[in-house]
Amino acid sequence: MNFPKVGSNIEIHSYKHNGLIHRIWEETIVLKGTSKVIIGGNDRILVKESDGRHWRTREPAICYFDAEKWFNTIGMIRSDGIYYYCNLGSPFTWDQEAVKYIDYDLDIKVFPDMTFKLLDEDEYELHSKMMEYPPAIDTILKRSVDELISWIHQRKGPFAPQFVENWYERFLQYR
Question: 116-119: long-range contacts (C-beta < 8 A, 24 or more apart)?
Answer without folding.
Answer: 116/149, 116/152, 118/145
